[in-house]
Amino acid sequence: MPILPTLQGPSDLRGLSEEQLNGLAAEIRECIIATVARTGGHLGSSLGVVEVAIALHRVLESPRDKIVWDTGHQAYAHKLLTGRYSRFGTLRQLGGLGGFPRRVESEHDVFDGGHAGTGLSIAQGLATARDLRHSMERIAVVVGDAALISGLSLEALNDIGHRQTQLLIVLNDNAMSISPSVGAFSHYFSTLKLSNAWKQSKTAYDRIVESLPVVGQPALTLSRRIRRMVVNFAQPGQLFEDLGITYLGVIPGHNIAGMEHIFRAALEVPGPVLVHVRTRKGRGYRPAERDQVGFHGAALPPMPELVDGRPVEIHIAAGHQPMTGPAMARKESAMPTPGLPDEAPVEPSGNGDSVAGGADMGTPSQTARTEAASRPPNYTYHFSKELIELARIDRRIVAVTAGMPTGTGLHAFQKEFPDRFIDVGIAEQHAVALSAGMALAGERPVVAIYSTFLQRAFDQEVHDVCQNDLPVVIAVDRAGLVGEDGTSHQGMFTLPTQRQLPNMIIASPKDEQELRSLVRTAFAQPHPFSLHYPRDPGFGVPTRIPEVLPVGVGELLREGRQILIVGFGPIVERGRQAAELLEREGWSVGLINARFAKPLDRQLILDQARGKKLVVTLEESVVTGGFGAGVLEMIEEARVADPVYRNVTVRIVGIPADRFVDHGSVDDLRRLLRLDADGIAGQIRETLIRMRLTPDGAEAATPAVIGRSKAP
Fold first, then answer.
1. Rounded alpha-carbon distances, angstroms, from residue 452 to 19, 455, 597
2. Is the pTM of this model over 0.70?
3. Count of alpha carbons within 13 Å of 564, Cβ hemisphere only?
4. What's the rounded Cα separation, in Å, for the pair 606 and 604?
């Protein structure tokens, strides 16, 4: 009988036998694979941590005890174990379960997290609050080996060790990037260090040696040094020990019983304990095990419906129709892992996050795969391709990323220019500061970071790049709405933060071909240059030769007499469609492609705003302090000096600033936020109604459509 559909919460795990627990792990993997095949999501890490989640929930009593997941995309098994099985099929869908822990979903989710490296600080805060109020809850945090190297994680580890906070840290090592040390010696010393005999005998021995006359203190120092050397011989955790954190490991991360034993003992140790577990990313789904980058998420390669020629029926929830989904080696997954796999990790193929094909492919159906394959390549693809073309000419160009070579398209750059590619890991602050240093030395660095992660490097943008007026190109990937990854990943805050910075130039293209020109423009000028572009596929516009564009010069796409729309980025196309809808109602609408949010094309915008009843700005960014605010400030300044602007009303259309944007498809979110063509037209109509304006029938003729640029 299936176990997963019957679970009401983690307390139900405690009555299961070892055989049942292994079967449950297999069911969880089947459910995750089948769901992610339809919805997309973070597959590999979630499959790798299934047994860790089961062991933690068996040992801890959630929600009284707290489990923090860093990064939150590891938490799919946690969601299934905490009563969300019946809704798991809605993962990352509008109105459904989020792809990361969310407090509004469950009392078992203690933190809404989506950025790597935050978990240790959150767990330290929870434990500190517990100690201040003298309560008894136990705190655990699961942190990935990549997240551990972030600056925030290292700062937290230093504080945890210094204050000796009682805390269980589970280091999920799924990339074999920390240490291969495992085996009998490692297991023996981990068990020994947990025993009272070791602790008591170590203290007693130190006291005896220290009491010896004359030679006591030197002998004690030598004894401790030798003891440390012996322990270090068997395990790699001296860094944590030096920080004051008891280190245990490396232990197999797919052996539930073994982890339970270690976790229970570790929770009894005074002070912080780090348990280093080794897991296999993508465990149980062979394509994900072989291609750990491609199947990380959130846009996945096609997931085959058959394994070994056999379809497998997987029930997402009780009462649902069975679906055919990707199979897994159930028998293999159900077996407890006696030790680490002997084979070396498979080298990633580099086809993740839809860069190579330019399409998000997260469904196994042939129809969906065909539709995805027919979509034009995305903006990331065009950015990477143009950057490589420029780098062939200019040897000063160096590409930097913070642990996202595939997602940012720089894996292709790395392949052609391995000596000019730098991946600093999850350390966005360092990536930007490093780029500033290279620019000081005469190189032309480009640092490509997702918009949501660039938030972490604000001080480096201010202090290192802009204050020094350095020609660092910041490629802001995933600018605007990202979609199913939800509140922590929407790229909606970078534009307002950058617009306030002196020396910073901010640009965004109306289409993928203009992106190529803006890449060239960025490297043709001597100042900090931030280039924003979305996750979306391009529009499929015909290829044209890229050109260096004049900085701060927009493009007049159509003239109108009553309304002026000024757009920044690919939303310009939706502005064009909205203009056409309004034209059918008799309005005369002009349209400007701003290209630059800073500096604005002052002359073009003011010339076209002159005599208009309404100016509408469009941006896929939070409206407070963003592109529209810049246009409003400019018109207000002109209004003081020139009476012709005193009757011009400005309507800013963008992402509302009073709430975070939830998860859902980008199309659904744009519809809900009224940032699709119909929504934009509707917002303009409502403004016109409030202004008590009506179209002039004499102005209903089709306006001139042009494509010229006007110099400021």
1. 42, 6, 19
2. no
3. 26
4. 6
Q: Which fold has domain 379-532?
A: Rossmann fold (3.40.50)
Whether 428 is a known active-site residue: answer yes
Of 29, 38, 281, 516, the active-site residue reads 281
Query: In terms of Cα–Cα distance, which of 533, 500, 504 is closest to 518?
Result: 533
Query: For 703, which DSSP code?
Result: P
Going from the C-alpha of 528 to that of each of 240, 332, 468, 471, 644, the distances in angstroms are 39, 53, 9, 5, 35
- CATH 3.40.50.970 residue window(s) in the chain: 379-532
Which is the catalytic residue, given 289, 428, 619, 620? 428
CA-based nearest residue to 324, from 293, 365, 266 = 365
Structure tokens at 9: 């919460």
What topology is assigned to 555-709 in CATH? Rossmann fold (3.40.50)
pLDDT in tens, 17-73: 999 999 999 999 999 888 888 888 888 788 989 999 999 999 999 999 999 998 778
What value does the mean pLDDT of the chain take?
80
- Inform me whether the pLDDT recorded for 152 exceeds 60: yes
Q: Where are the alpha helices (DSSP H) in 294-378?
A: 330-334, 366-374
Between 106 and 323, the more confident residue is 106
Average pLDDT over residues 6-27: 92
671 is catalytic: no
Catalytic residue, chosen from 38, 84, 280, 456, is 456
Is pLDDT at 587 greater than 80 in this prediction? yes
The verdict on whether 512 is a catalytic residue reads no
- What's the mean pLDDT in 156-175? 86
pLDDT at 683: 96
Task: Find the angle CA(202)-CA(203)-CA(208) to the nearest 5 degrees.
Answer: 100
Question: Each residue of 582-618: b (16+ CB within 10 Å) or e?
Answer: bbeeebbbbbbbbbbbbebbbebbbebbeebbbbbbb
